[in-house]
Amino acid sequence: MEKAGTRKFAVLLCADESEHVKQAYGGYLKVFMGLLGEEDETWRVYRAMHGELPCMADVHTYDGFVITGSCSDAHGDDRWINDLVSFLRALDSMKKKVLGVCFGHQILSRALGGKTGRAMKGWDIGVTCIRLSPSAIKLLSSLHIPSHLPIIECHRDEVWQPPPHAEVMACSEKTGVEMFRYGDHMMGIQGHPEYNKDILRHLLDRLLQRNLIQACQAETAKASLEAQEPDREAWKRLCRGFLTGKLSW
């Protein structure tokens, strides 16, 4: 039974979990809870890729939603993707907090009127340092977020054009829209704040096995993992601050 007054969040899972993630971490719900969750909160997973989304009658009971990464294209036309787009538009109309990660970042942009597609500069895999905009630095000052933020990335698609009225919060050498916010209730992050190096290493092996990346790309990505650390604590403060309404936007 849920305790009165406790926060409640939903993770919209947009990919099938690997055996490694299930065995080592208990699934992506627990991976996200490890970054974002706190005691006395309720977290539930919905397998959006298999057509499972919260009932609209229950949406008001949730304080926020997190959209995960995916092997699918956010610009695709699969039924579950179109259903997710419609659901996100409904959440926008209700001003519900939504955090999109990687594919989630892209599909959120699409739902709000932005454009997505294949990344102009190809795959970005490994630890990437993103640069916050001056306005984002000011907005996040209360959380003491550094202006340059290392994060684990693994994507070949990107946001080409952010939604109308959205603010681009960060960019990197390869990607023009690393973060965006839409009002004070929706935010997208192209990277994976929830990933650790072990998760990415196993993902690289799977991408190689499926011939989705070349060996040289995997080696470059692995080298970046040795060269720098993702700033997990800063990303935790940023994402938690957004989901719990601690940012004065």
Automatic annotation (TrEMBL):
GO terms, biological process: glucosinolate metabolic process
Q: Which residues form the signal peptide?
A: none
Question: Which molecular-function annotation in GO is an example for this chain?
Answer: peptidase activity
Q: What pathway does this protein act in?
A: Secondary metabolite biosynthesis
Q: Which ranges carry the Glutamine amidotransferase domain?
A: 61-196
- Major localization listed first in the record, in broad terms: cytoplasm
Domain of life assignment = Eukaryota
Q: Where in the cell is it found?
A: Cytoplasm, Cytosol
Q: Which Gene3D superfamilies did the record assign?
A: 3.40.50.880
Q: Does the keyword Cytoplasm apply?
A: yes
Look up keyword Glycosyltransferase and say if it applies.
no
Cross-referenced SUPFAM superfamilies, in alphabetical order? Class I glutamine amidotransferase-like
Q: Which CDD domains match?
A: GATase1_1 (cd01741)
Any single Gene Ontology cellular-component annotation: cytosol
Sorted alphabetically, which keywords does the UniProt record give?
Answer: Cytoplasm, Hydrolase
Which InterPro entries does this chain map to? Answer: ChyE-like, Class_I_gatase-like, GATASE
Return the similarity comment: Belongs to the peptidase C26 family.
Name the UniProt record assigns to this protein: Homoserine O-succinyltransferase
